[in-house]
Amino acid sequence: MKPIFAVILAAASAAVPAIADPLPSWNDTGAKARITEFVDSVTDPTSEVFVPVAERIAVFDNDGTLWAEQPIYFQMLYALDILQQKAEEDPSILTSDVLKAAAENNLEGVMAGGHEGLLEVINVSHANITPEAFKSSAHEWLTTEDHPTTGLTYAGMTYQPMLELLSYLRDEGFATYIVSGGGVDFIRAIAGDAYNIPSQQVVGSEGTTTYAVTDGVPALTKEGGITFIDDKEGKPVGIMRHIGKRPIFAAGNSDGDFAMLEWTTAGEGARFGLLLHHTDAEREFAYDREGHIGVLNRGLDEGPDRGWLIVDMAEDWSRIWSSN
Amino acid sequence: MKPIFAVILAAASAAVPAIADPLPSWNDTGAKARITEFVDSVTDPTSEVFVPVAERIAVFDNDGTLWAEQPIYFQMLYALDILQQKAEEDPSILTSDVLKAAAENNLEGVMAGGHEGLLEVINVSHANITPEAFKSSAHEWLTTEDHPTTGLTYAGMTYQPMLELLSYLRDEGFATYIVSGGGVDFIRAIAGDAYNIPSQQVVGSEGTTTYAVTDGVPALTKEGGITFIDDKEGKPVGIMRHIGKRPIFAAGNSDGDFAMLEWTTAGEGARFGLLLHHTDAEREFAYDREGHIGVLNRGLDEGPDRGWLIVDMAEDWSRIWSSN
Ligand SMILES: [Ca+2]
Ligand SMILES: [Ca+2]
């Protein structure tokens, strides 16, 4: 009978919670302690701020929060590559100064067109394709092309500490969502492989998609044009549209996430707001109050008084990239 | 040692699949057999058409598929009640013939305004309220008001056989989604209680929602206006926007579901399309090719040749309502 006792004992010991550190790439600073204290408090059934599993919704911005966003959003670099391929086949598509600058890989010329210029490049490069073919193309690009300064693949430039945080929250019964200003199809191309997040848990900006039957084959087609921008005040709107309830945990890195953190942390009971502060010029990139990407002013000014955790990447993280 | 053996044996027998009928309110007709054969085929790992759990997406129309839709969509009856309450307080909101007809409960007068008339009533009755307060109001109405002809609560007019089908599919690893032309917030008000479907698995038509901070309190507000109609060709579009992948099972009851079934069943591997045919004037309502609600023509004409199952409610169901 001894083997049976051994099996029973092994089963019993497997039920004891693991004491392994769930966040090994986080230094033992206050940031890590605040995260684990929050998670402990909302998952302990005897706690006054206990939250049932169905309400454990955690939302994460993507660019600059789960992966890097320099020198410019990865989706923009992808769009430039695709635009250049298209222009080689048919130069007549370059109908504006912004598109011509894009075709010459002149990033300053593209940026000179402002937000509209970026959208123009996105529109021309992302149109007339099925969502399935688009995702396949984006996945290939993200996993094989190299980033200009790090030499890593783009998919390899996810942040290891944030992957651990996602995984830790899921282990504690949270549903983890991406809520990004980036295009929903672009993020879905890689969210499963990169973050273990299924497509239905990705909320993002949306373009016009149409349905038609051609030669007997029904298909969706991505057209030009943006129907929903999931940024700033659009983030709480997108969350309500898609998830239908207010999260209890929100993480971001720029003032584009301010409304999402504001709305999340204004709910009753225990709430958590996290802002990633890009302080590590050596291992990643250092930027905050100025520039054209990931600008963080109001969050730095008001976040601490609102009880939000400001994560100092240089101080709080022992490792940056998932890929090395 | 005998008690331990007994425990082990009990555990082993618990692992044997239950032989209880998962669809007790379905008669033993071909319809039930086709459903269970499909589910068996895609969930059997040795089957040629096996589908992994992550791809087992099932989508259901709501009005006329999961609950009744006569004499008119329940959301419309709710809107009329709210409009009448609002008009009592402030008659100046009745700015059109359609709204005046609605305030007098003159259903023909409202229908005379066509689709635009219905939207006008929805707009006025669903605006200037937070999604949370709206859902609370709709939940109260659906669970306490009585339907004009059956005397049941609206929440009690869900179809028992469809509840069993939802539950059966979930037990077999499917994720069950509602994909409805109705308003997403209205359905979310009751989807958890009525169908055991969480808010994030409800796709529907969407109205304008805005985010603002008033006196320090951040809140979302439903405004008038429709931003997305999740009907006809909008259903595959809504599914791709929200879920991000093609379902393998789709159920509906009208030609508003045709594109959803067409797109679902055109995918590779085993697929299932189901159309509910309202044939039971005695226990429910009988209607199909004519009228203003739930019109089904193309589905009846082409569905069988496309391999879709046409469920005959009178023949295939032993029970209709969940509530009696
Ligand atoms: Ca960001
Ligand atoms: Ca219907």
TrEMBL record, chains A, B:
Pfam families for this protein: HAD (PF12710)
InterPro entries noted in UniProt: HAD-like_sf (IPR036412), HAD_sf (IPR023214)
Domain of life: Bacteria
One term of GO molecular function: hydrolase activity
Residue stretches in coiled coil: none
Keyword check for Oxidoreductase: no
Keywords attached to this entry: Hydrolase, Signal
Signal peptide positions (record): 1-20
Taxonomic placement: Bacteria, Pseudomonadati, Pseudomonadota, Alphaproteobacteria, Rhodobacterales
Organism: Tropicimonas isoalkanivorans
Protein's recorded name: Haloacid dehalogenase-like hydrolase
